[in-house]
Amino acid sequence: QKEVEQNSGPLSVPEGAIASLNCTYSDRVSQSFFWYRQYSGKSPELIMSIYSNGDKEDGRFTAQLNKASQYVSLLIRDSQPSDSATYLCAVISGTASKLTFGTGTRLQVTL
Amino acid sequence: SAVISQKPSRDICQRGTSLTIQCQVDSQVTMMFWYRQQPGQSLTLIATANQGSEATYESGFVIDKFPISRPNLTFSTLTVSNMSPEDSSIYLCSVEEMGRGVTGELFFGEGSRLTVL
Hints:
The structure holds two protein chains of two kinds.
Chain A: E1 4-5, E2 11-14, E3 19-25, E4 32-38, E5 45-50, E6 54-58, E7 61-66, E8 71-76, E9 85-92, E10 99-101, E11 105-110
Chain B: E1 4-7, E2 10-13, E3 19-25, E4 31-37, E5 43-50, E6 56-57, E7 68-72, E8 75-80, E9 89-95, E10 107-108, E11 112-116
Parallel strand pairs in B: 2-11
Antiparallel strand pairs in B: 1-3, 3-8, 4-5, 4-9, 5-6, 7-8, 9-10, 9-11
């Protein structure tokens, strides 16, 4: 079982719609969760972090965490073509204290 | 946020040779991380480099193949030794802000794209 799992996509959504990106993790004691965005040919950049169960909102982005289900999601409201990128879920393992990345979900926002 | 410069940005190398990648940060940082991203794949941590101590390598990566230097708080190098086509990848340097421990909030360099023929 992979430590951090994501659907590779591509996830295609029309402009203005809500994009929903999902991630599951295997280490039950993980405490810190992150979403990175990576444009094609570029390096990853951090867009959201979440540490507690529930929702965390930042502009058009909402991160959701459910530790009981070991599930993290990222919602992007009013999706724009500029949101087209690969979104990497990352988790700090509770035991190893290192950041582990999922394989990423490629998002395509269509006009 | 830290600004990270990596050199070279890309290179084409011959099998059996070695290449050293440099990573320069505009501020002092405790921990520097070297990742590899193979085509279409996610990021895999190679090693963590702390100033004044030996680098800590992840499972599957060894010092003989990926020697790392960390001479001060703003600079590190990663050498890819005795390269084979399987080493063709993007190598990324990343850092966390000084003094905050392992936060998961990483800043990345632009990456070094290596192609081994």
